[in-house]
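new request in #modeling-help
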Amino acid sequence: MAIATTQARAPTFLEEILATTPGESHLDACIQCGTCGGSCPSGAAMDFTPRDIFAMVRANMREEVLKSNTPWMCVSCYFCTVRCPQDIHITDVMYTLKNMSIEAKMFNPVAADFSKTFIAMVETFGRSFEIGLAGLQNVRHFATRLPKLTPMAVGFFTKKGMSITPPKRIKGMKQLKDILKRAKELEVA
Amino acid sequence: MSDYIFYPGCSMESSAKAYHASTLAVCKQLNIGLKEIDDWNCCGATEYLSLDLIPAYALIARNLALAEKQANGNKTIIAPCSACYLNLVKADHYMYEDKALGSTINDALAAGGMHYDPGKLAIRHLLDVIINEIGLDTVKEKVTQPLKGLRIAPYLGCMLPRPDYGTRYSDTEHPDELDNLMSALGASVIDFPLKTHCCGGHMTQIGPSTAFELIRRLIASAEQYKADVIVTVCPMCQMNLDAFQGQMNDYFHTNYKMPILFFTQLMGIAFGERPEKLGFGSEFVSARPAMAKIGVETPEMVAEAAQAAKPRKPTGLPMPPPLVKAGQSTNIKEEASK
C-alpha cells in the first residue's frame, strides 16, 4: 500500500499488486530462485508455481494469473514467506491475487465459493458455522463424496457434540454490519 | 496478576469443545485468569482475507477494539487457535506498519463507534504464554501424574511459528517449545521432522486429494517414529488429522489409527484432572489404546458405543446369543469400576 504510482500511464500489474498488498511486500525484488515453489505443500496442485506466477506478473499477464488456480490452492502455511531470500510476503501477495481475481470475476469457483459461503455466514451471525459451511460446500461441489462423508457428519454430532443449528447472533450484529459496510465502501474508494 | 483477555474463537464453541474444556481446566491449575472478550466475532479465518482485504481487517480489528476497551490492567490477549492468533497479530502488525491501512481500518471501525490503536495489545497464543510467562518450572511442579512411557509427536502446524511477527518462537520451522512442554510432563518426545508442516488447512473442502496427501505425510511420519499420539495446538489441525483420517485411509488404502489430541488435554492428564473433564472421547480416532499405555482410562466414544450395541448380523455357523445386551458397555474394566 505504501507505493504510490505517480506515473501518468496506467499502473502495471506488478505496481497494482504492490499498491494493494498491506505493508512492503517486496514483490518487485523477486530473483526467480524458485524457493517458494519448492517449499509449497500444494505446489503440485497449482496451474503455475508461485515463481512462475511472479514472472507472469512482471510480464503483465494479468488474465492468465488471475484465471489460474494458484492463489486459491495456497494453504497459507507461510513456508515460502519465511524462506524467501528477498523477504517477499508471498502469502500476502496470494491474498491480494485472490481479491483481484474475485473483483475481475476470473476466480476459481470451488475455492471462491467456500470463502464466500464462510463469509456470508460470518456476516449473518458474527460467528462461523462450520457444519453449515461444510455441508453447503460439499453439496455444491463434491456431491459424489456425500455418501462417504456421512459417517463423519454423524461423528460431528455424536462425538464432537456439534450443533446442526447455526450459532447465536452476536449482540453487536448491527455494529459489525455498519463496520463492514463502511469497510467495503473504503475498499472501492 | 489481573486476568488475561481471552479470545476463544468459533471452533472452540463447535468442533473443538475438547480444546475449550481442557484449556479452561489447565489455565485454572496454572492460575492463568481468563476474561473472555464480551461479544467477540469470528476472525474470518483465511477466507475473508481471500475475498475482501479491507473488510477482513475491519472484522478482525473489531475484536481488537473490544479487547482494548475491556482490558483491565493486563493488555495481553490469549488466543488458543492458531488461525485466530495469526489473524489478530497480522491485523495489529499491518495496522501499525502501514499507517494508511491503519487509518482506513479505523475509519471503518468508526462507523460502529469503535477505535483501535495498533500496538496497544500483546497478542499471544496459549502455548507461548505457558512457556514464556508461566514457565516450565511451574508446569513441572503441577505434574502429579507424569506421562511416562507415552511417545508424543509434537505438531505445531503453520500459523503459530510462521510468519511470527512478534518473534516469539525459537524457530520458524523447527521450534522446540512444544517438545519442551511435553518433556516437562514426563512424556517421551520424538524429534518430529514435520512438526510445522501443513495439515491441509481448508483444502479438505476445496481440493480433497491435496489435503489427503498432506494429512498422510504427517501421520505416516509420526507412525515411522512410533509415536502413540500426535499433539496439536490448533483446532483446524486437529480436525484435519483426526476427522479426515478415515477418509485419508480410504483414499490411500491405508489403515492408520493415530490419535490426535490437544496439548492441553495431555497437560490436564499430567495435572491429575479427570479425562471426562478434558474432552476425551470426542476424538474420531480413539485415544483409548494410547492412554491405556500410561494407565489412564479415557471415556468411550459415543459412536463406538452405539456400534457395539448394534446386534451383529449372524454370519456362518449359528452362535449362542451375545452375552452383552444392547446399550450395555462392552468394557469389562469400566463395568467393574461402576
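bot summary: Chain A touches chain B through 77 residues (CB under 8 Å).
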